[in-house]
Amino acid sequence: KIVQMSRANAFRKRYKRSEVEYNEIQNCYVQYLVEVAEKGLENVTPARKSFLTDPMTFAHYLRKRPVLMINALWDEVIPKQTTLDLWKASGKPAITWFPGGHATIWLWYPLISRKIIRFLKSTFGL
User: Fold this and answer.
1) pLDDT tops 80 at residue 12
2) Residue 32 — very low, low, confident or very high, per pLDDT cuts 50/70/90?
3) What is the pLDDT of residues 55-106, one digit of tens each?
4) Rounded to an integer, what distance in angstroms lies between the CA atom of residue 115 and that of residue 122?
5) DSSP symbols for 69-112
6) Is 95 in a helix, a strand, or coil?
7) Are the C-beta atoms of 56 and 85 separated by less than 8 Å?
8) Which of 1, 3, 9, 81 is the most buried (most CB within 10 A)?
9) How many Cα atoms are found within 13 Å in the side-chain-facing hemisphere of 121?
């Protein structure tokens, strides 16, 4: 879904899929996620290796755990909808949007690092 919806043309060209192929993969992936939730990751064989690197595969493990999501508001590589999908699947943890793109979010590093430090201290007593 990230590739299909990405505004980064080079990214989309590298992993080009037709709409039909994309929909077939998505349907298969949804079924895989259901099986992983029911049986556990180690007990399900993915139809595609890419399923093992998709963040949504692990989202249910994040529910009721401390998570801080930091995202670029105008990310041209990771579409906002896919971030929101992961956020929902993870149990709607704390999420912060910084004005910037995929490569420019680092401009906010001083604020991001303080936010991460506060999160780690409050969550883990570090």
Assistant:
1) no
2) very high
3) 999 999 999 999 999 999 999 999 999 999 999 999 999 999 999 999 999 9
4) 11
5) EEEETT-SSS-HHHHHHHHHHTT--EEEEESS-TTTGGGGHHHH
6) strand
7) yes
8) 3
9) 6
Using CA atoms, how far apart are residues 69 and 73, in angstroms rounded to an integer? 12
Structure tokens at 23: 């929909």
DSSP percent split of the chain into helix, strand, coil, nearest 5: 60, 10, 30
What's the CA gap between 95 and 13, in Å, rounded?
30
Instruction: Name which of 25, 32, 110 is nearest 70 in CA terms.
Output: 110
Average pLDDT over residues 46-55: 94
Q: Which residues contact 30 (CB under 8 A, 6 or more apart)?
A: none
Query: Is 56:34 a contact under the CB 8 Å cutoff?
Result: no
Token couple for 4: 């299909």
Encoded tokens for 87: 């956020």
Query: What residue has token string 């399900």?
Result: 44
Length of the chain counted residue by residue: 126
